[in-house]
Write a structure and sequence with these properties.
The complex is a heterodimer. Chain A is of the alpha+beta class. Helix content of chain A is 35%, strand content 18%. Chain A has 3 domains: 125 residues, 2-Layer Sandwich (Uridine Diphospho-n-acetylenolpyruvylglucosamine Reductase, domain 2); 125 residues, Uridine Diphospho-n-acetylenolpyruvylglucosamine Reductase, domain 3 (2-Layer Sandwich), CATH 3.30.465.10; 208 residues, FAD-linked oxidases, C-terminal domain (Vanillyl-alcohol Oxidase, Chain A, domain 3), CATH 3.40.462. In chain A, strands 15-12-14-13-17-18-16 form a 7-stranded antiparallel β-sheet, sandwiched between helices. In chain A, strands 5-6-10-8-9 form a 5-stranded antiparallel β-sheet. In chain A, strand 8 and strand 9 form a beta hairpin. Chain A is globular and about 70 Å long. The N terminus of chain A is likely disordered. Chain B is an alpha/beta fold. Chain B contains 26 helices and 11 strands. In chain B, strand 1 and strand 2 form a beta hairpin. In chain B, helix 5 crosses helix 8 and helix 14 crosses helix 17. Chain B is globular. In chain B, 52% of the residues are buried. Classes of the chains: A alpha+beta, B alpha/beta.
């Protein structure tokens, strides 16, 4: 039976409350000014970027901002003793309700654990705390010629801890993979306060196949198995050069086939991005003076590496694009690269401009389908948008089939809000019908948990058993990923 | 499965936007739409200078907008606590400039404060300062005059920086010994001609602002010297009042509007007579004239059209003043100050960007160009040029802990350059940095950029200029 947000919220009758005594103990375990409990504070921890939690916020009973692993251990023990839910939170940029305390309890906000502890470049690794902002890590590494390759669109705001907990990725995932590929080891506090270090307690190695891969189990576990307090990450040498190819297509299907052709031609761009017509319009409205070639879709490829290879690869990609495209342009001069890439980089921010008086909402925003079926998925999303009567701007990572669709909604129109929920369900179902998934990089949280049993079948029951082993009381981020059924 | 469409996580979902739309007229609808725009992405967390220290979500625009949205509910009970959270902001404008979804957080937060103020009222101490003193400039001057008499009894000069006096005792509220400029104002007013023998190429109006008027009149003198060296006649009108920033940022838009009208009526005749520019030494004042007045008098926050009509000002008048408003140092540099400022006049200096100058007035390069001209290789860029000193006007008095933490952090950054002088271009930053440098035990001395410029004007120019000044002439 699919678990719903509703049934989870009222599950587990033995769940404890945050009493005055608990607050006192939390203060003793951390510091008085790092335990928030006034309603006005709690209101601001009741949402993330998801549409669902904007409409239905859930207040925690307290928020704690720990500064050390020892403090996390203490507060976990306090919560465990009273069966109080614990919800880890980075910057609250999730679009899934993942960091929202839907069952109450204590939010553990890692914002103050934001130190880069060690930069060990000879061994190609860094050790960081979970609250480090992604862009800050790369700004620290760049002058030394290294970088942490995963590149979420929310680089400027999201935390590394949140990225790992959701196995986030970004545009360069085509070539470099998701965040998980770069996690060498994790320190995590388990539900009973035990501290484990995965990937070898003292290891500095870049590989490790000793024992079960608990690192990979914690990556993407969305705070349901443990609270990550320290991360050992692999970093790579920063490519010397980047180039960009932009190509416009009259037909969506031509864009899709071009991407297939590029891989068939043994080319491997770092990023392969698509913007549909609505997305191009949004970008042009956002940046005065920006003109994009007209067509059903525009593709952007990024290539990186040593300079001669970048030139060669960009030329070859442009050549393949010319077979079907109405307009092709490529550049390796940094200024021109930036101007070509501008349209793609602003589109996330620009979507709202297409419709005055409306807001972009995050719902059904992360489906991932087989690469060859991306054009079909894009057409399907447009068809759904027209049927439900509000615009959906779509752009995404065509290189791995991951699409971000942004419904533009006027929240003052109650009926429209209702229709959004229905349209989103259709988008998710379409992805599953196309042998895709409901989420490529954002995660499940509350908003997609109903689809998990269908997506995974018996494997989902194994997930539930794993959850029970790690967290028998069900206090770690309850109400997420459908892991606790209502009769529990 | 469609039960997903009816989430019911903590009580019934309530779409307050749908509930309230169409009920309260255009102003409210505009406010509603702006609150709706924030998609909760969290970008404002990254660069908010206040958030950086305590990392509490109520400190960032996203949190504040969420609170304002929540308190739209007719059954919600806003209180002074909420007002206090909303004023925990230095109004630096960064969240607005960097908002991906284009939310005008400046407007939404100020409108929110204004609506809240109507319901909960201003805390008495703050009201005494903002409405009692700043709103009636004569009273502020009288208070400063009275304070001047007692200041020498309770304050002693700081050795490294004698124009700032340190309090003998720790002051209440702030819990610290406090440095203040030695009060000497009011600054002079009148028409000041350029030095002898110089062709008058034009005229500028100078708006000194309260801190220069009462605490740093020498900054006006420095400006007059630079303006005169460029061949401009300076007009410092008598009767100017507070720019309104303290009221506006506190949510008291009515007072802000009244002060705006008073200032504009006084300045407009001079601008109509052909003055080239309206120059400021305080970026917050310039932002008031350039951005806030249009917004408050005929823009998003104008209230009723009747108010503008009653003031006798036209939209074009207000626009004219806004277009003329400029930072004094920036203007002088653009006007060719390089030619009349001695290169190498300063040994070693670093620079602190005032938030309002850097972001809302977009003056970033000119101060650096000036300092490079004056100090050559002696100019040292400090780390994190985007950092705020933590002053933020009444913010420093209301949110002492956060303000102090911001100040000390910034002063450590500035001290790391080991430059002798810390230049800035705002009298508020100047006074606050004096406190911070003292607290961290730095020997650095804070100065206003315009003073360094004036110090590089060749000597005979200044002598002539003094002799020609028509002191106290009423205009």
């Amino acid at each position: 039976m699919p678990t719903t947000a509703n049934s989870v919220a009222t599950a587990t009758p033995s769940r404890g409350r945050v009493t005055a005594g608990v607050l006192e103990r939390l203060r003793a375990a951390t510091a008085a000014d790092r335990v928030l409990h006034r309603e006005q504070h709690l209101l601001t921890y009741s949402y993330d970027a998801s549409f669902l939690t904007r409409l239905s916020p859930s207040l925690p009973e307290a928020v704690v901002l720990p500064e050390t692993t020892a403090e996390v251990v203490n507060l976990v023990k306090i919560a465990a003793a009273s069966s109080i839910p614990l919800v880890g939170r980075g910057a609250g940029t999730s679009q899934t309700g993942g960091s929202v305390p839907v069952a109450g309890g204590v939010v553990v906000d890692f914002s103050r654990m934001n130190r880069i502890l060690e930069v060990d470049l000879p061994n190609m690794q860094v050790v960081v705390e979970p609250g480090v902002i992604h862009a800050h890590l790369n700004r620290e590494l760049a002058p030394q010629g290294f970088y942490f390759p995963p590149d979420p669109g929310s680089s400027e705001m999201c935390t590394i801890g949140g990225m790992v907990a959701n196995n986030a990725s970004g545009m360069r995932a085509v070539k470099y993979g998701a965040t998980g590929e770069y996690v060498l080891g994790l320190e995590a506090v388990l539900a009973d306060g035990t501290v484990i270090v995965t990937g070898g307690q003292k290891a500095r190695s870049l590989k490790c196949v000793s024992g079960y891969d608990l690192t990979r189990l914690l990556v993407g576990s969305e705070g349901t198995l443990g609270l990550i307090t320290r991360l050992r990450l692999k970093v790579l040498p920063l490519p010397e050069k980047r180039g960009v190819v932009m190509a416009a297509f009259d037909k969506l299907t031509d864009a899709g086939e071009t991407v297939v052709d590029i891989f068939a031609a043994r080319l491997r761009p770092a990023a392969a991005e698509i913007m549909d017509r609505t997305a191009c319009k949004a970008a042009m409205l956002h940046v005065p003076g920006l003109t994009l070639p007209d067509g059903e879709a525009v593709l952007f490829f990024q290539v990186d590496g040593v300079p001669p290879a970048v030139t060669y690869e960009a030329e070859r990609i442009a050549e393949v694009c010319r077979r079907r495209a109405s307009h092709v342009e490529w550049a390796e001069d940094p200024k021109r690269v930036a101007s070509l890439w501008q349209a793609r980089s602003v589109v996330g921010a620009a979507t709202g401009r297409v419709r005055e008086g409306a807001t972009r909402v995050c719902a059904g925003e992360d489906i991932c389908v087989p690469v060859a079926r991306v054009p079909e998925a894009l057409a399907g999303i447009q068809e759904i948008a027209e049927r439900y009567g509000f615009p959906i701007v779509t752009y995404g990572h065509i290189g791995d089939g991951n699409l971000h669709s942004a419904p533009l909604v006027d929240m003052r129109d109650e009926d429209e809000v209702r229709r959004v929920h229905q349209a989103v369900d259709e988008i998710h179902r379409m992805a599953l019908d196309m042998s895709g998934t409901t989420t490529g990089e954002h995660g499940v949280g509350v908003v997609r948990q109903a689809y998990l049993p269908e997506e995974h079948g018996p494997a989902f029951e194994v997930m539930q058993r794993i959850k029970a082993v790690f967290d028998p009381q069900g206090i770690l981020n309850p109400g997420k990923m459908g892991l606790q059924s209502s009769d529990e | 499965m469609n039960d997903l469409s009816q989430p019911d996580v903590a009580g019934a979902p309530r779409n307050v936007f749908a509930e309230l739309t169409g009920q309260q007229g255009d102003d409210f609808e505009r406010y509603l739409m702006e609150l709706q725009k924030c998609m909760r992405c969290g970008q404002c967390r990254t660069n908010c200078p206040v958030f950086r220290f305590d990392c509490g979500e109520t400190d960032v625009a996203r949190g504040k907008l969420a609170l304002l949205s929540h308190y739209l509910r007719p059954d919600a009970q806003p209180d002074r606590e909420l007002y206090g959270r909303l004023t925990r902001c230095v109004n630096c404008g960064r969240c607005r400039l960097e908002c991906p979804s284009g939310t005008d957080t400046g407007y939404a937060l100020l409108e929110g404060r204004a609506r809240l103020l109507e319901k909960v009222g201003m805390p008495p101490v703050k009201s005494l300062a903002v409405r009692g003193a700043f709103a009636h400039y004569g009273r502020l001057r009288a208070a400063a005059r009275a304070f001047r008499l007692v200041q020498p009894l309770a304050f002693r000069p700081r050795a490294a920086d004698p124009r700032h006096l340190r309090s003998v005792w720790k002051l209440p509220i702030l819990g610290q010994r406090v440095l203040l400029p030695r009060l000497r104002g009011p600054a002079r007013t009148g028409v000041i001609e350029p030095p002898d023998g110089r062709e008058v190429v034009g005229s500028v109006i100078i708006y000194p602002g309260c801190l220069v008027d009462l605490g740093y009149p020498e900054l006006l003198e420095a400006t007059l010297k630079v303006v005169g060296a460029l061949g401009f006649r300076a007009i410092v009108p008598t009767g100017l009042v507070c720019c309104g920033a303290p009221a506006v940022y506190s949510g008291d838009s009515a007072t802000g509007r009244r002060l705006a009208v008073e200032n504009l009526k006084l300045l407009l005749p001079h601008l109509r007579e052909g003055a080239d520019r309206l120059l400021f030494l305080c970026p917050s004042c310039s932002v008031a004239f350039k951005h806030d007045y249009p917004e408050y008098l005929f823009g998003k926050m104008a209230g009723s059209a009747a108010a503008l009509a009653a003031s006798g000002l036209s939209q074009a008048d207000i626009q004219l003043v806004a277009e003329m408003a400029d930072d004094a140092s920036r203007w002088a540099w653009e006007r060719g100050a390089r030619e009349c400022l001695a290169a190498g006049a300063v040994d070693s200096v670093t620079y602190h960007d005032p938030c309002h100058l850097r972001r809302l007035m977009a003056v970033v390069e000119e101060p650096r160009a000036i300092l490079r001209h004056l100090a050559g290789d002696g100019y040292a860029e400090a780390p994190n040029p985007d950092s705020c000193c933590g002053f933020g006007g009444t913010f420093a008095l209301e949110h002492v802990g956060a303000s102090g933490a911001m100040l000390e952090q910034r002063c450590h950054e500035l001290a790391s350059t080991e430059a002798e002088l810390v230049a800035t271009a705002c009298p508020g930053c100047l006074a606050w940095l004096a406190n911070g440098l003292d607290r961290i035990g730095s020997r650095q001395r804070p100065v206003h950029l315009i003073e360094l410029m004036a110090s590089a004007v060749p000597a005979e120019g200044s002598a002539n200029h003094e002799s020609r000044a028509r002191q106290g002439a009423v205009v």
